[in-house]
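Lab notebook page, bench 4
Experiment: in silico fold of construct C2
Operator: M.H.
Input chain length: 98 residues
Purpose: comparison with the prior construct
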Amino acid sequence: MKLFLSLILLSSYQIIPSFSSSKDQWYCEEQKYTYQLEVYNSRSQIQVQADFCDYLSQNRDVSEDTYIQLYPNVRLIIFSQNKIDQGLVAIPQILYKN
Protein backbone atom coordinates (compact mmCIF):
# COMPACT_ATOMS: atom_id res chain seq x y z
CA MET A 1 0.00 0.00 0.00
CA LYS A 2 2.81 2.43 0.91
CA LEU A 3 4.57 1.71 -2.38
CA PHE A 4 1.33 2.28 -4.31
CA LEU A 5 0.78 5.62 -2.59
CA SER A 6 4.38 6.61 -3.23
CA LEU A 7 3.96 5.88 -6.92
CA ILE A 8 0.83 8.02 -7.02
CA LEU A 9 2.65 10.85 -5.25
CA LEU A 10 5.61 10.45 -7.57
CA SER A 11 3.39 10.92 -10.62
CA SER A 12 2.65 14.44 -9.39
CA TYR A 13 6.20 14.99 -8.12
CA GLN A 14 8.54 16.11 -10.86
CA ILE A 15 12.27 15.83 -10.60
CA ILE A 16 13.74 19.10 -11.82
CA PRO A 17 17.46 19.37 -12.45
CA SER A 18 18.52 21.77 -9.72
CA PHE A 19 21.64 20.34 -8.10
CA SER A 20 23.79 17.28 -8.47
CA SER A 21 26.11 15.36 -6.22
CA SER A 22 29.78 14.58 -6.55
CA LYS A 23 31.12 11.19 -5.51
CA ASP A 24 32.02 12.39 -2.00
CA GLN A 25 29.11 14.75 -1.40
CA TRP A 26 25.58 13.51 -0.68
CA TYR A 27 22.45 15.34 -1.85
CA CYS A 28 21.24 15.22 1.77
CA GLU A 29 24.26 15.18 4.07
CA GLU A 30 22.02 15.04 7.17
CA GLN A 31 20.44 11.83 5.81
CA LYS A 32 23.68 10.23 4.64
CA TYR A 33 23.45 6.39 4.36
CA THR A 34 19.64 6.44 4.82
CA TYR A 35 18.84 6.25 1.10
CA GLN A 36 20.37 4.99 -2.12
CA LEU A 37 19.86 5.65 -5.82
CA GLU A 38 20.21 2.59 -8.07
CA VAL A 39 21.04 3.41 -11.69
CA TYR A 40 20.57 0.68 -14.30
CA ASN A 41 22.45 0.51 -17.61
CA SER A 42 23.66 4.10 -17.47
CA ARG A 43 26.52 6.17 -16.13
CA SER A 44 24.76 9.50 -16.45
CA GLN A 45 24.85 12.15 -13.73
CA ILE A 46 21.82 12.10 -11.42
CA GLN A 47 20.09 15.36 -10.60
CA VAL A 48 17.30 15.90 -8.08
CA GLN A 49 14.92 18.63 -7.08
CA ALA A 50 15.92 21.06 -4.33
CA ASP A 51 13.34 19.62 -1.89
CA PHE A 52 14.70 16.07 -2.29
CA CYS A 53 15.68 15.87 1.41
CA ASP A 54 12.13 16.71 2.49
CA TYR A 55 10.82 14.14 0.01
CA LEU A 56 12.98 11.46 1.68
CA SER A 57 11.64 12.32 5.14
CA GLN A 58 8.03 12.40 3.98
CA ASN A 59 8.27 8.99 2.32
CA ARG A 60 10.30 7.14 4.97
CA ASP A 61 8.38 4.22 6.51
CA VAL A 62 8.96 2.99 10.05
CA SER A 63 9.35 -0.72 9.30
CA GLU A 64 9.71 -1.21 5.53
CA ASP A 65 12.15 0.13 2.96
CA THR A 66 10.43 2.28 0.33
CA TYR A 67 11.25 1.78 -3.37
CA ILE A 68 10.35 4.56 -5.81
CA GLN A 69 11.04 4.55 -9.57
CA LEU A 70 12.28 8.09 -10.29
CA TYR A 71 13.24 7.59 -13.93
CA PRO A 72 13.04 4.57 -16.22
CA ASN A 73 16.61 3.64 -15.22
CA VAL A 74 16.78 5.13 -11.68
CA ARG A 75 15.23 3.67 -8.54
CA LEU A 76 15.31 5.36 -5.14
CA ILE A 77 15.51 3.24 -2.00
CA ILE A 78 14.55 5.00 1.24
CA PHE A 79 15.64 2.81 4.12
CA SER A 80 13.17 2.27 6.96
CA GLN A 81 13.52 4.05 10.28
CA ASN A 82 13.94 0.68 12.03
CA LYS A 83 16.89 -0.19 9.77
CA ILE A 84 18.44 3.24 10.41
CA ASP A 85 17.97 2.85 14.19
CA GLN A 86 19.89 -0.46 14.06
CA GLY A 87 22.93 1.44 12.80
CA LEU A 88 23.96 3.12 9.59
CA VAL A 89 26.22 1.22 7.23
CA ALA A 90 28.56 3.07 4.88
CA ILE A 91 27.04 2.58 1.43
CA PRO A 92 27.45 4.54 -1.79
CA GLN A 93 24.78 7.15 -2.46
CA ILE A 94 24.56 6.06 -6.10
CA LEU A 95 24.92 2.43 -7.10
CA TYR A 96 25.44 1.77 -10.81
CA LYS A 97 24.18 -1.61 -12.04
CA ASN A 98 24.24 -3.27 -15.44
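Observations: The first strand starts at residue 19 and ends at 20. Residues 4-19 have pLDDT under 50 and may be disordered.
Next step: discuss at group meeting.
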